[in-house]
Amino acid sequence: MDKEKIERAVRDILEAIGEDPKREGLLDTPRRVANMYEEIFSAINKDPSDDLQVFFEQAGHEELVLVKDIPFYSCCEHHLVPFFGKAHIGYIPRNGKITGLSKLARVVDTVAKKPQLQERLTTEIVEALEKQLNPLGVIVVVEAEHMCMTMRGIKKPGSRTITSGVRGAFQSDAKVRAEALQLIKF
Fold it and tell me: Does residue 79 carry a catalytic annotation?
């Protein structure tokens, strides 16, 4: 990441909006923004499936594994303002192939740390689990509030966008999907 280039660009933006980048309160802003961008866009070009460590368990568990209410923060690629919310991830292991629960949260973080669309974020989480775990089924539900709808444009604070991605057993079996959705709402 070219932090010096970001700093120059932030100074240009401050000037373009009529501010003085040499004003006391703004002197360190370009550096702060560059450091922030380094952090919030740290997963550009990273494969989220690399976050999933695979374990083989003797228990042979082939029932739903669900982690819900995983918080995330991302940045809308259309306006470069935040959107934030929570993700719910469920999968049904195949042949005892599971991952650590924290790894599911790590996948969410990785996918969120780049300029993003909620729809793509949802799909990338699903695809990472499919690629690395080859489960019998995957379900991902993402709920988020988008600041591009809250603080600008239509200005509708509190509105939430919900996206989902379902594959395998969750796609083909309505009872399996209904069970997962009920547990997510619970």
Answer: yes
Q: Which helix (H) or strand (E) holds 94?
A: none
Active-site annotation holds for 146: yes
Q: What share of the chain is helix, strand, coil (3-state, %, to 5)?
A: 45, 25, 30
Among candidate residues 7, 75, 76, 116, the one labeled active-site is: 76
Q: What is the pLDDT of residues 149-168, one digit of tens each?
A: 999 999 999 999 999 999 99
Is 75 a known active-site residue?
no
Q: What's the pTM value of the predicted model, to 2 decimals?
A: 0.94
Regions of the chain where pLDDT drops below 50: none
**All structural domains of the chain with their residue ranges:** 3-41, 50-184
To the question of whether residue 148 is assigned a binding role by annotation, the answer is yes
CATH 3.30.1130.10 fits 50-184, yes or no: yes
Known catalytic residue at 77: yes
User: Does the domain made of 3-41 have the CATH classification 1.10.286.10?
Assistant: yes
Do 33 and 11 form a contact (C-beta atoms < 8 A)?
A: no
